[in-house]
Amino acid sequence: MNIPEHMLNLYDYEKASQNTLPPSANDYYRSGSMDEYTLADNMTAFQRIKFLPRVLNDVSNVITTTNLGGKTISSPLIISPTALLGMAHPEGELAVARAASAANNIMICSTMANTPIEDVTASNDSSTWFQLYVYKDKEATLTLIERAKNAGCKAIVITVDAPFLGQRERDVRNQFQLPEHLHMSNLHALGHSKLPDKVGHSGLAHYFEELINKSLTWRDISWLKQHADLPIYLKGILHPKDAQLAIEHGVDGIIVSNHGGRQLDGSIASINALPAISKAVNKQIPIILDGGIRRGSDILKALALGAQCVGIGRPVIWGLSHSGQHGVENILNILQSELKLAMALAGCANISEISADLIAEL
To answer: Which end of the chain is more exposed for a tag (fewer CB within 10 A), N or C?
Structure first.
């Protein structure tokens, strides 16, 4: 696919999205919690990590394919779960699913998608995973898992860092609500498809306060694993002890993430949490790094520090708002091309040659 000449990198798409999206939607997608320190640090932390490249290795044919969850994908880059994509483009999750399919990649569909999971999986010939928020209503949670299984999802990704929603002050000031024509389609039959209208508050924050399970423990993870009959990944791991507990409870993989800087402000940047978690996991289960990826060189840094793969969220929204499916495909292609170049310049012809030796000690 030809990438527009004036859209050279992800930052070009970010600028374009700010002129395309309605202000409330733009604030919702771009915001972090409170002072947004973690949001900023997710990106600046990558800048502090320096390469120590090797030379005189044959890099005439750089290959980015890798395996995740038993599936060969075109690059170590997947689409992280992002809610309410219908605000970014009329085709929302369907456009993203088609882009993932075209790229032979994995899309993680959000519980709070504007499109039913059945329609999303039907549009992605590659692989769809389902991100799950655990509700107070256990039957509602099990219904979502069953629907994801029946729709053909290949894994369940449980978000574990959001018993409450972080204070996203842009949303509070905007009294964020979904546009009237949109609802959370996966929750329609359960009666939870609309955000409550509470004056002076973010409707989404109030939704979490009312419905999401705040007493979730490791015991519940074991219970969910019994019922899922699918690989279980935990999203929102930052502490190495939690990574070890995930292994002890039979989890199939973890996503190192601070929710895009949208939960506890002042939390460690995802990439800075990765080395200790990688050491604790010791290659027993896959690690996905989520947060702050803006360049192919960022992907290379994450792989060198122990991730098997990375996920992107906001950049997908930027591509989607710009030109739907083609915009998302462009985002994926840009990152894959940048990764290939970074690997070549670092002396790596394939993913297996990437190691911690590529990173200079700070």
So the answer is: C
